[in-house]
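Next comes a concrete protein, fold included:
___
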Amino acid sequence: PRPHPTIRVRPLSSTETRRGDQQVVHSLGDGAIHVSAARHDATFGFSAVFDAGASQEAVFEGSGMRQLVELAIDGFSCTVFAFGQTGSGKTYTLMGPLAQSDTQPAAPALLGLMQRSFTCLLEQSRSRGSDLALSASYLEIYNEQIRDLLSPGPPCSLPLRWSKTRGFYVENQLSVEFDSLETIVSLLLQGSQRRRTSAHALNRHSSRSHALLTILIRSRAHHPIMWVLQAGACPGKQGTLCFVDLAGSERVKETGSSGELSVEANSINRSLLALGHCISLLAKSRGKRTHIPYRDSKLTRLLARSLGGSGVTLMVACISPSSRCLSETLSTLHYASRARRVTTRP
């Protein structure tokens, strides 16, 4: 199958409306989206397009996220990642409002793809009556350093290794078992609060790192003879559900970044460029495909299996409808169009 790029257009912000920005992005229905501005007139087609009026629930149901959860339970390696310009609504789409915590939960209608997927996962595991073991790990890639968001104490850099059996993996990463919605949501919120964010001209809460939350779903095979002979050591399925919140692409001139913010921006843009390069090469037919440079960044190494290997991938491209963001919006739409042509073998 191919990845399913889904487009989400956020509303114009109060700043953009006050400034008099024009809305240059329009949904045409049936997965078509039109961009119209001076010297630019283009129509793109995707599996689904959600405009500014779409609810969080509509995005969850219409993007195929529920089916992705079911595939993960069935033993597949599944990934959803949100990408787009800084301030385009990636973290909101995945998590919901930023101002939420264990003591101040978000309104149910505003919860993002992650919390809705957790609910779906736990409901499915109970309804199937299977013996599922669930565990979660959460890390960020900040300035090309991998840091564990669940380990207590100040974040320290973890090594990225490679083996023939596992592919690329993070050594000494903490994995926490959970069996309730409260526990996994608490882990998500604790980890997210430790993630690096900063304010700049385009976004008051700009993510300065790529974040990956991975849920491992292990199920034991129930075969009576095997159960007696091996005392519980039955072979079983193992699936993963990985949520990737990419830091937003940004132009330093637009964000007004300097010093440490500028260093972060360059690091973010380099890793996103490496990701885009891998996607462009994967989109070519197998006969014309050259070596895929996954090793160019830590992000592409960790996403290697999801992008071009044995995974099932959902991509959510978040864009601003503002005329001021036209260049970045077109770049994101072209990026998603290329991703449509990638074929994986789950």
